C-alpha cells in the first residue's frame, strides 16, 4: 500500500492542477467574451432652444421652494400650514401650467397635488412622473454650512433640506412642463404629475389616496418614474465611468418594535438581569448576525444584473469577478458587505433606530423598547425576516410587535425588451452621454408602493450625479445640489417628455441585438 502512495499523490496533484487549469480557462474565456449591455448614446445636442438653462429666474424659484419648511415628523404629523403655503407658491410660480386648458389639477388628501396634462392622442396610455412636497426634519442645525431652509447658493451648490430629496425633481418636472407648454407644444401622450405630501412618513394620506383615486377612475399607466437611485460617480466598485442606476424594484421594509418588561425597583437592590440588559443583548445579537448575503447565494435578481450590465466596463480584476459570478459570487458578496452603501445591495439590512428606557438615575426601569428598521432584499420576505430575528434573539422575554411592513416590490421590465426602460436609457444618455446605464433596486422606499396596481413598469431614478461623499447628505447634514445638477434634472424631464411623443417600440439595430 505504501508503495503506491507516491502514485496516488501524483494523481491527486495532477487532478487538482487539471481542475484549476479548466476553471482558469473558463474564467478567461468568459471574461473576454462577456456581452456588453450598453448602447451608444443618441445624437442630441443640448443647445438652445432645446435646453432649459438654470437661469436666475429658475434658480430663484428653486431656492424659494427650499425655503418652505414642509417637514413630515410622524405619520399624520406634518406641517399643514407650510404645505398650504408651498402649494400656493407652486400655483403662482407656474402660470402657464395653471392657466392651461390642457391641465387638470386635483388637490388630494388636502395637500398632495395631482396634475393631468391632456395629450393629443387619447388612444395612448398616460404615464406618470412622481415626487413629493415634504422633507425630513433637520438635525444638528448648528453644523450646517448654510442654514437648512435658506436655499443659499454657495460655491456652485444650492444648500437646504429637500435639494436632493426631493424638491429637485418636483420643481424639475414643473419647470419642464411649464417650458413645454409655454412654447405651445401639446404632448401626444397624457402625462400625470403626482406629488405626495407625506412620502417621508409612508405616503399614507397623500400618495396612497392618489393611487386609490386613479385606480377608482380605472386608470392604467404606461410607466411611472419616481425619485430613486442617482447617476453614481465612484459608487459602483470597479467602474470609473458614471453609472446611471435605474431602480426597477424596491426593497421591502419591516419596522419592528421590541419590548422587554421586567420587574423594576430601587437601584440599590438590582436583580441579575434588567429589562435594559435583556434588550441590549437581543439588539446586540441582531447587529452581530446580519441577514444572508444574497450575492454569496449566486442570485439572479437585480443585484446581479446590475453588475453584469456594467461588467465589460470594469477594471480587469472586477471584470473577471463579475463575468464569472458562477464562481466568484461569494467573493463579490464579501467585497459588497464591506461598505454600508454596497452592503445595502447585498442583503436585508438591520438598523437600530430607537432605544428607550429609564426615567431616573436611581430607578431600575421596568420596561425597555427598541425599534428596528429592516429594509428587505427583493429575494426575501417579511415573514422570513421576522423568523430570522426570532431565531437570532432566541429569548421569549423579548416581545415582537410589527409597526409597519411592506413586501419587496415586483420587478419592472428592463433591458432591450422593455420599450420604457430603453426610453429612459436613451433620455439618460442625452443628458449624460458618457454614462453607463444599469438596472438596480432601490434600497430605501418611495411613494411608488401605492402605485403598484396602476402600472407594471415602475422606475425610481434621480437624474443627478452623486459621489460616495454625497450619500450621507440624504436625510443628513448639508444636503445640497449643484447648479449644474439641477440644470441636468430640468433637462432630463424635458427630454423625457419630448421623447414620449415618439411611439414606444423596441428598436433593434447593430450591436443592440446582443443585449
Ligand atoms: C453597487 C451600487 C452602489 C450604489 C451606491 C448607492 C446608491 C444609493 C444612492 C442613493 C440612495 C437613495 C436614497 C434616497 C432615499 C429617498 C427616499 C426616502 O427617503 N424614502 C423614505 C425611506 O426610505 O425611509
Ligand atoms: Zn424622497
Ligand atoms: Zn427621504
From TrEMBL:
<dbReference type="GO" id="GO:0004046">
    <property type="term" value="F:aminoacylase activity"/>
</dbReference>
<comment type="pathway">
    <text>Amino-acid metabolism.</text>
</comment>
<dbReference type="GO" id="GO:1990845">
    <property type="term" value="P:adaptive thermogenesis"/>
</dbReference>
<dbReference type="GO" id="GO:0005576">
    <property type="term" value="C:extracellular region"/>
</dbReference>
<dbReference type="GO" id="GO:0006629">
    <property type="term" value="P:lipid metabolic process"/>
</dbReference>
<dbReference type="InterPro" id="IPR002933">
    <property type="entry name" value="Peptidase_M20"/>
</dbReference>
<dbReference type="Pfam" id="PF01546">
    <property type="entry name" value="Peptidase_M20"/>
</dbReference>
<feature type="domain" description="Peptidase M20 dimerisation">
    <location>
        <begin position="248"/>
        <end position="392"/>
    </location>
</feature>
<dbReference type="Pfam" id="PF07687">
    <property type="entry name" value="M20_dimer"/>
</dbReference>
<dbReference type="GO" id="GO:0046872">
    <property type="term" value="F:metal ion binding"/>
</dbReference>
<dbReference type="InterPro" id="IPR047177">
    <property type="entry name" value="Pept_M20A"/>
</dbReference>
<keyword id="KW-0378">Hydrolase</keyword>
<dbReference type="GO" id="GO:0006508">
    <property type="term" value="P:proteolysis"/>
</dbReference>
<dbReference type="InterPro" id="IPR011650">
    <property type="entry name" value="Peptidase_M20_dimer"/>
</dbReference>
<comment type="similarity">
    <text>Belongs to the peptidase M20A family.</text>
</comment>
<dbReference type="GO" id="GO:0043604">
    <property type="term" value="P:amide biosynthetic process"/>
</dbReference>
<protein>
    <submittedName>
        <fullName>N-fatty-acyl-amino acid synthase/hydrolase PM20D1-like</fullName>
    </submittedName>
</protein>
<dbReference type="GO" id="GO:0008233">
    <property type="term" value="F:peptidase activity"/>
</dbReference>
<dbReference type="GO" id="GO:0043605">
    <property type="term" value="P:amide catabolic process"/>
</dbReference>
<keyword id="KW-0645">Protease</keyword>
<dbReference type="InterPro" id="IPR036264">
    <property type="entry name" value="Bact_exopeptidase_dim_dom"/>
</dbReference>
<dbReference type="GO" id="GO:0006520">
    <property type="term" value="P:amino acid metabolic process"/>
</dbReference>
<comment type="pathway">
    <text>Lipid metabolism; fatty acid metabolism.</text>
</comment>
<keyword id="KW-0862">Zinc</keyword>
<keyword id="KW-0479">Metal-binding</keyword>
<comment type="function">
    <text>Secreted enzyme that regulates the endogenous N-fatty acyl amino acid (NAAs) tissue and circulating levels by functioning as a bidirectional NAA synthase/hydrolase. It condenses free fatty acids and free amino acids to generate NAAs and bidirectionally catalyzes the reverse hydrolysis reaction. Some of these NAAs stimulate oxidative metabolism via mitochondrial uncoupling, increasing energy expenditure in a UPC1-independent manner. Thereby, this secreted protein may indirectly regulate whole body energy expenditure.</text>
</comment>
Amino acid at each position: 500500500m505504501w508503495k503506491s502512495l507516491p502514485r496516488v499523490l501524483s494523481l491527486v496533484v495532477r487532478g487538482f492542477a487539471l481542475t484549476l487549469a479548466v476553471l482558469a480557462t473558463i474564467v478567461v474565456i468568459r471574461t473576454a467574451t462577456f456581452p456588453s449591455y450598453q448602447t451608444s448614446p443618441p445624437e442630441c445636442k443640448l443647445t438652445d432652444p432645446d435646453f432649459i438653462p438654470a437661469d436666475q429666474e429658475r434658480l430663484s424659484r428653486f431656492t424659494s421652494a427650499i425655503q418652505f419648511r414642509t417637514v413630515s415628523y410622524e405619520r399624520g404629523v406634518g406641517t399643514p400650514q407650510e404645505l398650504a403655503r408651498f402649494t400656493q407658491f407652486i400655483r403662482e410660480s407656474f402660470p402657464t401650467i395653471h392657466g392651461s386648458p390642457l391641465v387638470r389639477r386635483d388637490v388630494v388628501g388636502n395637500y398632495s397635488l395631482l396634475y393631468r396634462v391632456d395629450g393629443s392622442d387619447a388612444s395612448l396610455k398616460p404615464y406618470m412622473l412622481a415626487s413629493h412636497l415634504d422633507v425630513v426634519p433637520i438635525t444638528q442645525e448648528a453644523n450646517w454650512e448654510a442654514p437648512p431652509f435658506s436655499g443659499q447658493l454657495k460655491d456652485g451648490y444650492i444648500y437646504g433640506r429637500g435639494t436632493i430629496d426631493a424638491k429637485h425633481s418636483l420643481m424639475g418636472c414643473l419647470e419642464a412642463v411649464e417650458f413645454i407648454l409655454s412654447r405651445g407644444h401639446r404632448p401626444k401622450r397624457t402625462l400625470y404629475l403626482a406629488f405626495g405630501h407625506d412620502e417621508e412618513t409612508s405616503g399614507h394620506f397623500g400618495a396612497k389616496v392618489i393611487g386609490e383615486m386613479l385606480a377608482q377612475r380605472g386608470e392604467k399607466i404606461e410607466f411611472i418614474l419616481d425619485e430613486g437611485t442617482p447617476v453614481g460617480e465612484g459608487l459602483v466598485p470597479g467602474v470609473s465611468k458614471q453609472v446611471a442606476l435605474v431602480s426597477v424594484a424596491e426593497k421591502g421594509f419591516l419596522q419592528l418594535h421590541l419590548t422587554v418588561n421586567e420587574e423594576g425597583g430601587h437601584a440599590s437592590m438590582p436583580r441579575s438581569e434588567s429589562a435594559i440588559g435583556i434588550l441590549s443583548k437581543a439588539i446586540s445579537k441582531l447587529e452581530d448576525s446580519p441577514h444572508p448575503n444574497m450575492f454569496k447565494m449566486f442570485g439572479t435578481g437585480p443585484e446581479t444584473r446590475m453588475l453584469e450590465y456594467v461588467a465589460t466596463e470594469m477594471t480587469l480584476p472586477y471584470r473577471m469577478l463579475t463575468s464569472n459570478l458562477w464562481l466568484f459570487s461569494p467573493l463579490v458578496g464579501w467585497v459588497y458587505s464591506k461598505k454600508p452603501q454596497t452592503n445595502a445591495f447585498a442583503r436585508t439590512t438591520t438598523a437600530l433606530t430607537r432605544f428607550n428606557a429609564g426615567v431616573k438615575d436611581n430607578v431600575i426601569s421596568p420596561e425597555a423598547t427598541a425599534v428596528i428598521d429592516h429594509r428587505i432584499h427583493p429575494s426575501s420576505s417579511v415573514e422570513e425576516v421576522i423568523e430570522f430575528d426570532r431565531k437570532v434573539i432566541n429569548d421569549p422575554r423579548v416581545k415582537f410587535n410589527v409597526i409597519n411592513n411592506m413586501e419587496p416590490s415586483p420587478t419592472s421590465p428592463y433591458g432591450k425588451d422593455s420599450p420604457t426602460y430603453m426610453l429612459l436609457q436613451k433620455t439618460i444618455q442625452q443628458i449624460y452621454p458618457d454614462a453607463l446605464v444599469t438596472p438596480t433596486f432601490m434600497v430605501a422606499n418611495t411613494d411608488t408602493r401605492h402605485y403598484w396596481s396602476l402600472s407594471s413598469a415602475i422606475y425610481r431614478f434621480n437624474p443627478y450625479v452623486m459621489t460616495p461623499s454625497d450619500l450621507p447628505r440624504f436625510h443628513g447634514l448639508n444636503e445640497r445640489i449643484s447648479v449644474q445638477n439641477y440644470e441636468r434634472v430640468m433637462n432630463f424631464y424635458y427630454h423625457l417628455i419630448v421623447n414620449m411623443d415618439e411611439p414606444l417600440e423596441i428598436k433593434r439595430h447593430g450591436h443592440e441585438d446582443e443585449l
